[in-house]
Amino acid sequence: MPSLDAPLLRALRGERPETTPVWFMRQAGRSLPEYRELRVGTRMLDACLTPDLAAEITLQPVRRHGVDAGIFFSDIVVPLRVAGIDVEIVPGRGPVFADPVRTRADVDRITAIDPAAVVAAAEPVREAVRAVVAELDTTGTPLIGFAGAPFTLAAYLVEGGPSKEHLRARAMMHADPEAWHALAGWLAQVSRGFLRTQIEAGAAAVQLFDSWAGSLAPADFRAFVAPHSAVAVDGLEVPVIHFGVGTGPVLADMRLDGRAAAVGVDWRVPLDEAAAIVGEGTTLQGNIDPALLTAPWEVLESHVRDVVERGRSARAHIVNLGHGVPPETDPTVLTRIVELVHSL
Ligand code: CP3
């Protein structure tokens, strides 16, 4: 069991531990030479479903940076691969689906897959999480599990691959709301199953990634998206962090009516302003601008100090980036940020 006194878990409960917890989205991955070495010859989704490999990759950044949490090495499309859907992650591009889900018949084909069968087939995930937690428990460091939110998953599934404005998924909401709700409802069950699998194997918190929620009009987010994300995380046994990029206009809604213990904020909204929006009941996570990771240290340091200072307006604060670590980041800079945050 991770210690309930771990700074990350205390901050999620709304307490202010002596050291502010810090971890980084995409802390595992291409910024680390030891990751690039391990990944040679193995495709991304195969790596995710090879327990030893996924466990080792998860642990690499925890050992190197001394961050306050591990984030399970996997991908938001892993449960869809486990469900038997033909998806590949194309390097430099992202998830690509052989058969995009565009019509009502496509939706029926997908939703015929039983979410419970997906959970049952996720054995490699359970095994990897158990291995990670066994090692992290020796230092009391919590593991964060995660899943993609229904909208962000649909943004790939409906388009068939990465897109800038996720037009096809957003169009489906209005052109065929019934098909949309059927698809998003199914994705909510699959994401929920993926989260519960990680929790049962030992994850101490989870993050729901709705990375592309910022592309939605607030009214659409409320009507077509938030209710499904709420189902994905409702009543889980561990605290939930809810993250999206460009979500300033829907930051209060990102709380999912209190289901989220913490809301992740990107670099566009200063944390003191975000705190005023989410109120007393919600912890904030963020929001170092990833663009500043390549700036001179003095510039980055003063930015990190400003983020921590503004974070004091929130009930509690978990330091992170506003989005993932860019692959070209010098990992020694990340270690330095951890040391700085812990010293403040
Ligand atoms: O360290 C961590 O944060 C844990 C692992 C993690 C990955 N993907 C590993 C990964 C997590 C939490 C994700 C989530 C994910 N995947 C999201 C939501 C988070 C976000 O960044 O907004 C999204 C949108 C995806 C889909 C996806 N997977 C994309 C867009 C890409 C990039 C493709 C590329 O090559 O640029 C991936 C691949 C991916 N997922 C990599 C990693 C480490 C790179 C794969 C490689 O090493 O080749």
Can you describe this structure?
The protein is an alpha/beta fold and 344 residues long. It has a single domain, classed as Alpha-Beta Barrel (TIM Barrel), CATH 3.20.20.210. 47% of the residues lie in helices and 11% in strands. It is built from 15 helices and nine strands. The chain has helices at 7-12, 33-39, 44-48, 51-65, 78-82, 104-111, 115-120, 123-136, 150-159, 167-175, 177-200, 218-233, 271-278, 297-311, 331-343, and strands spanning 70-71, 87-90, 94-97, 143-148, 205-209, 240-243, 262-264, 283-288, 317-321. A seven-stranded parallel beta sheet has the order 1-4-5-6-7-8-9. A two-stranded antiparallel sheet has the order 2-3. Strand 7 (262-264), helix 13 and strand 8 (283-288) form a beta-alpha-beta unit. Helix 4 (51-65) runs parallel beside helix 8. The two termini are 28 Å apart. 50% of the residues are buried.
